[in-house]
Amino acid sequence: MIEDEWLKKINVDTKPFEDALKLCGNFEDVTGITTATGKFSKQYHFHYAKPYYNEMRKYLTYIDDKVKTYNLKPYSSWIVESNIGSYHKFHRHSVNGLTHIRPNKNNIATVLFLEVPEDKNKGDFYFVLKKGNDILNNTITPEKGDLLFFPWSVYHGVYPQGNGLRKTINLDYIYA
Fold first, then answer.
1. Measuring CA to CA, which residue among 176, 153, 154, 170 is closest to residue 68?
2. What are the backbone angles phi and psi of residue 173, rounded to the nearest 5°?
3. Residues 159-171: pLDDT tens digits?
4. Which among 50, 109, 135, 145 is placed 20 to 30 Å from 60, CA to CA?
5. What is the DSSP string of 119-169?
6. DSSP letter string over 42-63?
7. CA-to-CA distance for 139 and 156, rounded, in angstroms?
8. Residue 9 banded pLDDT, cuts 50, 70, 90
9. Does domain 8-175 have CATH number 2.60.120.620?
10. Residue bearing the bigger pLDDT, 133 or 83
11. Count of CB atoms within 10 A of residue 155's CB?
């Protein structure tokens, strides 16, 4: 039986995260080989993310009733920058892109919205959750500072956005 899935949202000050990001390094352009889609969509993996993970650790307590956060180990980190017409294909996270393997429900994805378009079409974040015998479809209209936590098993994506910069930082954790 598949356990119920969940998603939590809080709003945080983005400045400490932006400052931490300046200390990170080894940005690798992976545009075109990810779920980020659109003429104005860019994605960058970054490999020296310790300052950013340290900042995020302060907020992991918000999911402690769902996962033993002291067992979470950093796994991957990336930035997505997009503009008009950009979107994310429906997907879930997995180890090394092996989507046929059901992700561990304790592996955690985080998404922080650093910028959202001023356009009324901000590129809603959509997701589906398994709750008992039901599958629930949900959307979140993002605001700057929104921080989302959810298990890797949650399928999600982003609807095409309107004009303006949409920038997210995404961190994945493996339950070790």
1. 176
2. -125, 145
3. 999 999 999 999 9
4. 135
5. SS----EEEEEEETTEEEEEEE---TTEEEEEETT-EEEEPPP-SS-EEEE
6. EEEEEEE-HHHHHHHHTTGGGG
7. 9
8. very high
9. yes
10. 83
11. 16
Q: Please write the tens of the pLDDT for every residue from 23-57.
A: 888 899 999 999 999 999 999 998 888 888 888 88
The 10s digit of each residue's pLDDT in 116-142 is: 999 899 999 999 998 888 999 999 999
Q: What is the mean pLDDT of the chain?
A: 88
**Residue 165 · residue 83 · CB < 8 Å:** yes
Of 89, 57, 50, 87, whose CA–CA distance to 71 is shortest? 57
Listed by start position, the domains of the chain span 8-175
Question: Ramachandran region of residue 15, left (φ > 0), alpha (ψ -120 to 50) or beta?
Answer: alpha
